[in-house]
Amino acid sequence: MNAPYMPDVSLKGKIRRRLTRLTDRKPLPAFQGRYVSFSFDDFPKSSAIAGAKALEDQNLRATYYACAGQMGTSNHFGQLFERKDLLRLSHAGHEIGCHTKNHIDCAASSLSAVQRDVIENQEQLSRMGIAASNAFAFPFGDVSFTAKNALAGRYATLRGVQPGINCSGSDSNQLHAVPLEGGESDMGYASSFLDKLRYKPGWLIFFTHDVRENYSNWGCSPLALQKVIKSAKNANFTIGTVSEVYRKINVEAAK
Predict the structure, then answer these.
(1) What is the DSSP letter of 140?
(2) Which domains does the chain have, with CATH numbers?
(3) pTM score of the predicted model
(4) Residue 72 in contact with residue 82, Cβ under 8 Å?
């Protein structure tokens, strides 16, 4: 089970994170659309139920970054997903992405450990009938130079947790993402990014963990999620899974 993360706040850690964002870049092509994706990390059972319902009620789908090794366990996010949750989400049209098997730190772990954990995660998901995904999210949002290089050759998109809107030229090997954390009254931060998207083309990716009334520090309430979803839909933004939006952007750029 993954414990609450303590990032490397040393000068060395800060410099490494900044330099990693400059390496192995795969810039997004020029595009004019305004896109939004919703994603869930790890993922808790509450996001598989309440999170999925909030999206499906609006005929929308999300990307769920799964750690197969955590299936059926519990941690500070509450109970994590079970096999039946995974299959229902997949059959309903949600994307099941990769988040390593055991939620290992891709910045602190050896390259061989990262590669093994990623391969084992996909193998376990495949045995359950889940198709291989082109979407990956770094656990804890961090990655080393070597791991980024290796994962870039395996997935179409790699997502971090650096807040921001992805635009033409943004790195699809380290996509920005904005957290959804708290209750309805705490969604001003998320809403500010939706407001920015109204005035400039871009791709806004939201992420959270648990979706429940007694949300963790890294989760949100069902009503908070519903509020952001409805705001994005009312703004007439194109909403889709991470891989769907990535394809749409490349199709748009090719015209």
Answers:
(1) G
(2) 32-254 (3.20.20.370)
(3) 0.94
(4) yes
